[in-house]
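sanity check this chain:
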Amino acid sequence: MQAEGKPAAGAAFKEGHVDAGGFRIRYMEAGQGPPLIHLHGAGGLRLTPGHDLLSRQFHVIALEMPGFGQSSENTRTQNMPERAEAPSGSPEEMARRLYAHPERLPPIPPPDPAVQAKTRKLVARLRGPDRDADLERQLAGLATPTLVLVGTVDRVIPSDMGHIYKELMPNCHLVFVYDAGHAISTDRPEAFTEVVVDFLERHEAFVISRTPTVIHP
């Protein structure tokens, strides 16, 4: 649970906007250092304690994708290479799916019905099959070092997906974060930041071996 007097996650981030591709895109940024871009998932842009910790070493820029949040409805985009499923239902149900320990978090405010409807419509249009053969063929040729983090109690995406990514990408590092749900940077912000920073700074000298590893408390 959030300590009394402690700033809310993302309190140091400042809002800005940029025009690109015919869209007015909102972003949140904080910190100094090398730029680090954050692209949110189907649930929309949420700043977490993990963002705050990363902003101590990086210039973190979190973008809000067109059609999410307070942005205008996106009727142009028809597909996307990643798979996503928007959590839906009550705030309590969302919390149970996203977090390992929702009872430790401050109450989640009810979503804006208009924003929720707009987002659900967009994600339903973009979402394709659970396994995309064309995407998987492309991943096989991806030589870029890639870090895949999976929470051990993720209730949104099966943990087996981590093993699939590792099999498909030749330079993939798979790490299971103990006692974390889908929202790893909220459940285990310190562990999340430690492993991400080490990976970004050292790449092939990354402290985690190529074998599946669990980051313990």
Summary: Residues 80-85 have pLDDT under 50 and may be disordered. The longest strand covers residues 23-30.
